[in-house]
Structures are given as structure tokens and as C-alpha cells.
Design goal:
By secondary structure, this protein is of the alpha/beta class. The chain has one domain: FAD/NAD(P)-binding domain (3-Layer(bba) Sandwich). Helices cover 32% and strands 24% of the residues. The chain is built from 11 helices and 18 strands. Helix 1 runs parallel beside helix 10, helix 2 packs across helix 10 and helix 10 packs antiparallel against helix 11. The termini are far apart. Bound molecules: flavin-adenine dinucleotide. Flavin-adenine dinucleotide binds next to helix 1, strand 3, helix 9 and helix 10. This is FAD-dependent monooxygenase. Keywords: FAD, Flavoprotein, Monooxygenase, Oxidoreductase. GO terms for molecular function: monooxygenase activity.
């Protein structure tokens, strides 16, 4: 069996790793001109299911490295005012395993065949079986199965399920990161908590590595090269609905909404890495329309994009990757027909994927003042 995976995000790479480990040929096609072409390094919290899924997709010899580059989430779960006084508590704990997306992505990329500058533009299902994918700047590729792991704007979904389209929640947020130095020791209570300002929320999360990732790879898995990054604080300011930055940079726009805030909070934003500060929109994709199982399927944000405030998008994408991997191994072994295997995956994925989107939307109003509950 040959599988074409479109999109080198966490879900697509985890699937390709899992297939490679089972001896199934998988090529990854990525739209970006290079693997590190843009900022991809925010901190993620994985739940036990998501973490186990990615672990199961990776070769066992890398498990000690994986365990070394993550940390347990210890969330404050408080609501603080802009002077860092406690004014409430966040409902529902958000504990789990913290991982840097860029570091995890590098681990997942190791040993894979990834074709960059390969934006999918369409595909044809072939009469004799299989599917041919077309790309903007490269030759078409033929495979038994095409997996669209190409994120919220998925081009694969555009052909497979054109009526499934993203919904813009209107919520915008600025995300960035700042090296974690002793200067910010006083902020530790705020990590995992929400700072409620006038119409905005600021969320902070610390990323502390047990061992710096590059060093950990050198010691535990010399065939893996991980980025040379140190501890940092990830911050995200959620703006009022349809908020815009005006003419300001992302960083200045955040500071302009922090008049009178605690000086350490302001310093945190002032010292952020400007290249890693960016404005993002919260768009969701709700899986609804079903299609007959065939040689094309979807995974991750491409079919169930959640609001990041749900903290479950990567978890769900990794769960998909592991589930699809298991089904395809059954098909490869001749124990199941390929399309039946894909159909079984889709049935299960649609159910938990829809639930993940709903749950993320329910949590959005707690972080985005002015947004009505869905
Ligand atoms: C700030 C932030 C914080 C988050 N925090 C968490 C968290 O704590 N926990 C959690 O579980 N989730 C979190 N999420 C969500 C999580 O990051 C995503 O749900 C997850 O990364 C989705 O993975 P994916 O592989 O489906 O898609 P993506 O990671 O979006 O990857 C899609 C890939 O496809 C490529 N692509 C797009 N179009 C094409 C094309 N036409 N041809 C070829 N390639 C294409 C893109 O360039 C990209 O590399 C967060 C998201 C954000 C933005």
C-alpha cells in the first residue's frame, strides 16, 4: 500500500511516522517552501489520549527522548486581575503534558520523505483504483490512499466535502513568546491562569524543558536533530470580537491594551521575540456531511478544527493519526478491505471530532469577553 499524506502538521507527520514504522510507504506533501519556513513553535498541552497516540506512532527507541522533551502541566487555574490579584477560579482543570509544537514536529519529521513547496491543488480518483493528487509546482503523485491533513483551509476537503467550510468565530488573538528568565519569577502564579483585563484576556503558559531539546536528542537519540531552544513563556491575548490591530505591530497592539498592568506583565510582552508574535483568527470546522468511504480521507483540523481555547485540536489530530494508522495496518495485513478500514476510521473520528469542536466552542466565551455561548 502507498499513502500520500497532504500536510506536514502534527497529525499528518504522526500518521506518516506510524505507517513508516509498520513498513507502509507514506510520502508527505507540504505547501510551505521549507520545513521551518514560518513560526510554528507554540506550546501545546496534550491529554493522556493525545500523548499516548503520538507515542504509539513513534518508534519505541525514541520514547525516552519524547519523555525528556515534555513536562507535566501544572496549571494555576486562577482568574487574576491585571495587577495579579486573584479574583476567581477557572472552571475545569487543564492538566496534561506540555510539549513545544516545533520540537515535537522536528521529532516527527525525522526519517520521513517530506516534499516541500508541494501545495495540493486537486485530485482525481482513478477508474482502476487509487487516486492521483495534483500540486502547484510538482508532478502529480499516485497512491492507494490520499489523506488530507492540510489544516483548517484544507484543499483536500474542498474537493471531498465542499459543503464543509470553516466558520470564523470573529475572535482574534495575538500569540507570542518570551524567553523565560529570572526576571519573570514573580509571574509563576499566572502560568495556566487567565488575566482578565478590560475587554481582553491574557493567557500565560511556561515551557520548561527538563533538558534542552537539542542536548536531549544528542544524548538519547543521536539520529534525531532537535531545535536549539530554551525555556520560554507563551502568551496569548484574546481580543474583543472582530478586534483588529490597526496600524500597530502585534506586540504594540497587546501593550496598548495593558495600560496600568503589573510591570512584570508589561515587561514580558516588551521582551517578546517580535518574529514569533502574530495575530491569529479562531476558525472552526464542524464535521457534518458524510461521504462514501473511498481512497481519500481527512484528518485533524482539516475535518474538525477546534478553537484553541479548547486545548484539544492537536490531541484530536494525533488521535486520528493513531486510529487511521491502526486501521491501515489491518488493511495492509489483508485482514480488512482498504475502504472498510477507512470507513471504520471515519465513523469513529466523526463522532469524537464533532464532540471536540463542540466542547472547544463551549469554552470560548470564558476567554473571549463578548462572545455568546454557542
Ligand atoms: C495558539 C494555539 C494553541 C494551541 N494549543 C493547543 C493545545 O494546547 N492543545 C491542543 O490539543 N491543541 C492546541 N492547538 C490546536 C492545534 O495546534 C491544532 O489543532 C493542530 O496543530 C492541528 O494539526 P493538523 O496536523 O491537523 O494541522 P496543521 O498543524 O494546521 O497542519 C496542516 C499542514 O498542512 C499544510 N497545508 C495546508 N494547505 C496545504 C495544501 N494545499 N497542500 C499541502 N500542504 C498544505 C500547512 O502548511 C500545515 O503544515 C492550538 C492551536 C493554536 C493556534
Amino acid at each position: 500500500m502507498r499513502v500520500s499524506v497532504v500536510g506536514a502538521g502534527l497529525g499528518g507527520l504522526a500518521l506518516a511516522q506510524g505507517l513508516r514504522g509498520a513498513g507502509i510507504e507514506a510520502d508527505v506533501f507540504e505547501r510551505d517552501p521549507g520545513i521551518v519556513a514560518r513560526f510554528q513553535g507554540y506550546r501545546l498541552v496534550l491529554d493522556p489520549t493525545g500523548f499516548q497516540a503520538v507515542r504509539d506512532c513513534l518508534p519505541t527507541r525514541w520514547h525516552p527522548l519524547l519523555d525528556e522533551i515534555v513536562m507535566d502541566a501544572s496549571a494555576g487555574q486562577l482568574v487574576l486581575d491585571p495587577r495579579l490579584n486573584e479574583i476567581g477560579r477557572l472552571g475545569g482543570g487543564r492538566t496534561g503534558i506540555v510539549v513545544d509544537r516545533q520540537v515535537l514536529r522536528h521529532l516527527l519529521l525525522t526519517g520521513l520523505t517530506v516534499h516541500t513547496d508541494a501545495a495540493l491543488t486537486g485530485y482525481e480518483v482513478l477508474a482502476g483504483g487509487g487516486v492521483r493528487a495534483r500540486f502547484a509546482r510538482r508532478e502529480p503523485a499516485t497512491a492507494d490512499l490520499l489523506v488530507g491533513a492540510d489544516g483548517v483551509t484544507s484543499a483536500v476537503r474542498g474537493v471531498l466535502s465542499p459543503r464543509t467550510v470553516p466558520t470564523d468565530t470573529g475572535v482574534r488573538f495575538v500569540i507570542g513568546r518570551t524567553p523565560l528568565t529570572d526576571e519573570f519569577a514573580g509571574l509563576s502564579r499566572a502560568y495556566g491562569s487567565k488575566i482578565a483585563g478590560d475587554g481582553v484576556s491574557l493567557l500565560l503558559g511556561a515551557m520548561r524543558f527538563r533538558t534542552p531539546p537539542k542536548q536531549a536528542a544528542e544524548q538519547l537519540a543521536p539520529d534525531v536533530t532537535l531545535p536549539d531552544i530554551g525555556d520560554y513563556v507563551r502568551w496569548a491575548m484574546i481580543l474583543p470580537p472582530n478586534g483588529s490591530l490597526g496600524n500597530l505591530s502585534a506586540q504594540d497592539a497587546v501593550l496598548s491594551r495593558m495600560e496600568g498592568w503589573h510591570p512584570e506583565l508589561r515587561a514580558l510582552i516588551e521582551q517578546a521575540d517580535p518574529d514569533n508574535s502574530t495575530l491569529l483568527s479562531i476558525r472552526v470546522v464542524e464535521p457534518g456531511e458524510r461521504w462514501a468511504p473511498g481512497p481519500v480521507t481527512l484528518l485533524g483540523d482539516a475535518i474538525h478544527a477546534t478553537s484553541p481555547t479548547g486545548g484539544n485540536g492537536a490531541n484530536t489530530a494525533l488521535r486520528d493519526a493513531d486510529l487511521l494508522r491502526r486501521r491501515l495496518i489491518e488493511a495492509e495485513a489483508g485482514r480488512q478491505d482498504l475502504f472498510d478500514a477507512v470507513g471504520d476510521y471515519e465513523r469513529e473520528m466523526f463522532a469524537y471530532g464533532a464532540q471536540a469542536v463542540r466542547s472547544s466552542l463551549e469554552k470560548l466565551p470564558a476567554f473571549a469577553p463578548g462572545v455568546k455561548p454557542s
